[in-house]
Amino acid sequence: xxxxxxxxxxxxxxxxxxxxxxxxxxxxxxSRPELLRRALTHGSIASxxxxxxxxxxxxxxxxxxxxxAEALFSADRAATEGQLAPRYNAxxxxxxxxxxxxxxGLGEVLKLGRSEMMSGGRRKEALLADAMxxxxxxxxxxxxxxxxxxxxxxxxxxxxxxxxxDARDAxxxxxxxAQAQGMSPPRYVQIARTGPDHAPEFxxxxxxxxxxxxxxxGKGTKRSIEQAAATAMLEQIERTP
Length: 241
Fold this sequence. Notes:
Blueprint: H1 7-13, H2 17-26, H3 33-39, H4 54-75, H5 81-92, H6 94-103, H7 106-109, H8 114-118, H9 125-143, H10 145-155, H11 157-161, H12 163-166, H13 170-180, E1 187-194, E2 201-207, E3 213-219, H14 222-239
Antiparallel strand pairs: 1-2, 2-3
């Protein structure tokens, strides 16, 4: 009579090798692998039998927000709300979520429709950020808040340690740099706005007098995307003064 696999072996048999490798990079072994599969399923390939990750994205955003807010609050008991807010925004913004998604190879395991895949969906900032939040929700539903908190703190640890640098007001820094070069203040141009009113997505380009441009896109307020564009411009300036 065939020997029945041990429970842990049975769990591993239900998850593909690429998802198992991703779980290791994430730092969590799923007891319910279907949650991870859903978190990695984009709307372009979703169906009635394979739901997309949008509901998980909604939940994961809140789990991430509470974890980061608590970590910042505990790390600096003397900080005012005005000091905590920019640190928080720097850590939960779409660009940060997307960067962490790239670090753990999330794009490699995303389940996309053919058209989205052909248009470079695995590299798109907004798509990666949304999926990262969905994965956090999947961990939360699989093992509870403390486990999800541990995963977030592990992935965000370096950024939490350097949050003062990341939280600097990029628009102010860029304006000061431009003025020091004898230029006019940077100009921010809204290239596009999509999505519903309650969750708009912006594409913003910042332009300098010397012809340089940098862009950013994603969900959030218009100002937050302008800040992201300013950050991109500052990084460009650092590479090519």
